[in-house]
Specification:
Blueprint (H helix, E strand, L loop, with lengths): L1 E2 L7 E3 L2 E3 L3 E2 L1 H30 L10
């Protein structure tokens, strides 16, 4: 996994070794859901509006 640049080293708490924070697949998935998916939807709707109002398709799927 990717290590985050927090500068924290592994710690020992009550005899248990706590590892440094890291970026997990769940974190990547949640960032995609909360940032990527809404951005994809908004830009897709903007492209649809451009196509309906001006008759010009600017989306990637128009290249085919």
């Amino acid at each position: 996994m990717l290590s985050l640049p927090f500068g924290r080293k592994a710690e020992t708490v009550m005899g248990h070794k706590i590892t440094e924070p890291r970026l997990t697949m769940m974190a990547i998935w949640l960032v995609f859901l909360y940032v990527g998916l809404p951005l994809l939807i908004v830009t897709g709707l903007m492209d649809l509006a451009m196509q309906l109002f001006f008759g010009v398709c600017t989306g990637v799927w128009c290249l085919a």
